[in-house]
């Protein structure tokens, strides 16, 4: 979730008291699917997804 989405949530629901996040990667290596580098493998160094959960004054925001 980018900073603009977080800003919108804070504006809508108020300040955030606590945030938790978990990152994971399904594969250690991925393959380029199209373009001039199609078929080329590259290492996955950073988790592509990181689900977060925020809590704000008794409410939980996903």
How would you summarize what this structure contains?
The protein has one helix spanning 3-13, and strands spanning 18-21, 29-31, 41-43, 52-56, 59-61. It is α+β, with helices and mostly antiparallel strands and 62 residues long. The protein has a 3-stranded antiparallel sheet with strand order 1-4-5, with no helix packed on it. Strands 2-3 form a two-stranded antiparallel ribbon.
Q: How would you characterize the overall build of this protein?
A:
The protein is an alpha+beta fold. The protein has one domain (3-61). The protein is 18% helix and 29% strand. The chain contains one helix and five strands, in the order αβββββ. The protein has one helix spanning 3-13, and strands spanning 18-21, 29-31, 41-43, 52-56, 59-61. It has a three-stranded antiparallel β-sheet with strand order 1-4-5, with no helix packed on it. It has a two-stranded antiparallel sheet with strand order 2-3. The protein is elongated, with a radius of gyration of 17 Å. 0% of the residues are buried.
């Amino acid at each position: 979730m980018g900073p603009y989405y977080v800003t919108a949530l804070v504006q809508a629901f108020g300040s955030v008291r606590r945030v938790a996040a978990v990152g994971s990667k399904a594969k250690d290596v991925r393959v380029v699917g199209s373009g001039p580098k199609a078929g080329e493998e590259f290492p996955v160094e950073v988790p592509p997804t990181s689900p977060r959960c925020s809590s704000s004054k008794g409410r939980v925001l996903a």
